[in-house]
Amino acid sequence: MNPVKVGIAGLGTVGSGTVNVLKRNARDIARRVGRPIEITHIGARRDNPACDTTGMRISRDIFAVATDPDIDILVELIGGIDTARELVLTAIRNGKHVVTANKALIAEHGNEIFQAAQDNGVDVAFEASVAGGIPILKSLGEGLAANHINWLAGIINGTGNFILTEMEEGGRDFKDVLDEAQQLGYAEADPTFDVEGIDAAHKLTILASIAFGIPLQFSRVYTEGISRITTEDVASAAHFGYRIKHLGIAKDTGNGIELRVHPTLIPKETMLSAVNGVMNAVMIHGDAVGPTMFYGAGAGAEPTASAVVADIIELGRALTVDHDERVPYLGFHTDHMSDEPILTIDDVTCCFYLRLHVQDKTGVLADITRILSDNNVSIDALVQREVDQGLVPIVMMTHEVREGDMNAALAKIAALETVDSDIMRIRVENLDA
Amino acid sequence: MNPVKVGIAGLGTVGSGTVNVLKRNARDIARRVGRPIEITHIGARRDNPACDTTGMRISRDIFAVATDPDIDILVELIGGIDTARELVLTAIRNGKHVVTANKALIAEHGNEIFQAAQDNGVDVAFEASVAGGIPILKSLGEGLAANHINWLAGIINGTGNFILTEMEEGGRDFKDVLDEAQQLGYAEADPTFDVEGIDAAHKLTILASIAFGIPLQFSRVYTEGISRITTEDVASAAHFGYRIKHLGIAKDTGNGIELRVHPTLIPKETMLSAVNGVMNAVMIHGDAVGPTMFYGAGAGAEPTASAVVADIIELGRALTVDHDERVPYLGFHTDHMSDEPILTIDDVTCCFYLRLHVQDKTGVLADITRILSDNNVSIDALVQREVDQGLVPIVMMTHEVREGDMNAALAKIAALETVDSDIMRIRVENLDA
């Protein structure tokens, strides 16, 4: 089937991430869309060695992409406002669907852009503009569409959250952490947009419109930054049982809508307070669903590309009009199911927690550890507790082992006369990123 | 515009919740879909006083709904497998789109149902079948569609998580907590499906298919319950820095897929380990996006209805073919935007954290508390710290107050000669459900 043809304007961090994700996962993406996605044209002032653009047309003039008669979708990743606005409106007037990651553009000129898109019968998708790789706009506008949204509150600026996390965990002051964030590339040379809340206000504007069905009203967001927070404040908040987070809050009070970005004390035991470092998360409270939370990376090349490419896939599915299934029942098209084998549990490898009760005799522990060792089970930690009803409880943590080997070892240990055959074995998952 | 006509089979907990949500939020839902959603026909063996069905046709024979020529969408909420399968296939053969919350039906007969749906050119939506109100299938199949999914791990059975949470927090044993869960209505009289992991295995089957594009293979899921976990295990796990959670795990190892449900030790500091009580959460790790997590209520009348109604809205949008916008740019249709006012920050009410530095003189604190009281600010907690550079730091937490009142009070306090004018004021949000 004919590929969906994509033009990309801007080849910086997110642009190169988008090229890399579309190329690396091309096979799976074609299985999801029902036909391939092809990048045919890139507009960028300079090449970017972080991605391979072999076979793609390259223009130094980004407007050549927006007017290219050969593309179906323009992906705007140049950032900034004025040129991006002109580029997107040009693409729309040329009948292109548009995908953008540009929060400032949507928050400040979205109403105009959507009107132009409606007039020209094209779609504009902007999942990547809020909370990077978290599919928060789709979750809010589609997944929770049954609800009256009561409020939402989000950690939607990774730089700010990194600074507050470091201030709390290291007892360091704002300026000191900001310097480090700039060195790590988490903060711009001019950090105003991040630390004074403007970036978060752009994102909150977009979230609030989708939550409440109101026009985009960036100028009405109350915005306060984190630059005045001291280590004393962080410590005092902890004393009262709170953490300080920089939140964007939108709330339907019943007689008007609150839109505000500011440092906020939230109770330590709430889910949102566990969101640390550069990670983002948005809590949404709907009248039917109650509280929900969506968590993930809010920035970075590939997390943002994840959202950009999801939008391209969605438009690609919509463009694939000759197919019954817009979104296939199971996400992938039925005739593209994979026959990858399901492994038996014996082939699973993980660490184990073991609990067993043994007789209080010499040599028992030696027998057990020898059997474990013979079956490739190596012990990471072992605690022997006090004798309980004549038996000694032993708990241990193992290193990684094949489940089949662990079962063989346990069968032999359970057969020992000195060991109670009721052995408990629980798998350990570190859920490492 | 003509309403989308919905028939509902089954009027139990989720059925009545669905009726209530569709009625209560009818206006907003019509703004999202572009036309009204109308329940025209309900099939149920008996009425349910928990919802108002005035004006709806009621049949005692649920098959009368599936064959009703007047409905566009059949919503299957009867539960169970055999009759549900027959009902859904009947509806599909009659050209109806189907929405179902039935995890067992989809996990065990989904391949057959999707084939029938494809043959008849209709859609089948089942967001409510996994993790209740969390839009996890949409997030996985659409929001994260750009990714190769490396693994996912979910707390997808609220009953089991409630039991493990209570065992940990109260040091109580399995049987004791199970009895309480049965009294609270969290567990069935026969709790096998929940505590032995079958319910979670149904859900994992569905998640894995959408993650990896493989057919539904319920019979290949390795399943182990939580009934053998003791308080000793919970305490020993804590000793090693872990919590025990009952997880469904699907992992692409590169040479096959692991599908397993079992008790699992996970590090205390991971996000998933903070998910307590009957709440659900699913972590998904994609190659582009990295780790993400989706959290919310996994069961209950209205959380489940939230997902059922989201599916109805999605089908309703797809049926609204005479409209350019399938999913409107901002979730609500452009000509149905609301003009609800955005409140000024002065009208926001919340609790505050205050930090100020005052001279070490008698009467200063009295002046401050009098000004606060005169401006309707009442103090919840106050800590006076030791003198620092000639000034006494005071931090306090207030009760709820209008921001305008707080600002008026602070302006007067800052004007006192005995108070340093650099006063810090941070808002407190309890993020209460």
TrEMBL record, chains A, B:
GO biological processes: methionine biosynthetic process; threonine biosynthetic process
ACT domain ranges (all copies): 353-433
Keywords, alphabetical: Amino-acid biosynthesis, Metal-binding, Methionine biosynthesis, NAD, NADP, Oxidoreductase, Threonine biosynthesis
One Pfam family named in its UniProt record: ACT
Residues annotated to bind NADPH: K103
SUPFAM superfamilies tied to this protein: ACT-like, Glyceraldehyde-3-phosphate dehydrogenase-like, C-terminal domain, NAD(P)-binding Rossmann-fold domains
Active site as annotated: K203 (proton donor)
Positions annotated to bind L-homoserine: E188
GO MF terms, alphabetically ordered: homoserine dehydrogenase activity; metal ion binding; NADP binding
Signal peptide stretch: none
Residues annotated for NADP(+) binding in this entry: A9, G10, L11, G12, T13, V14, G15, S16
Catalytic activity line of the entry: L-homoserine + NAD(+) = L-aspartate 4-semialdehyde + NADH + H(+)
Alphabetized InterPro entries for the sequence: ACT-like_dom_sf, ACT_dom, Asp/hSer_DH_NAD-bd, HDH, HDH_cat, HDH_CS, NAD(P)-bd_dom_sf
Assigned EC number: 1.1.1.3
Needed co-factor(s): a metal cation
Enzyme superclass (EC): oxidoreductase
NCBIfam families (alphabetical): PRK06349.1 (NF004976)
Protein name: Homoserine dehydrogenase
Source organism: Alcanivorax hongdengensis A-11-3
Lineage summary: Bacteria, Pseudomonadati, Pseudomonadota, Gammaproteobacteria, Oceanospirillales
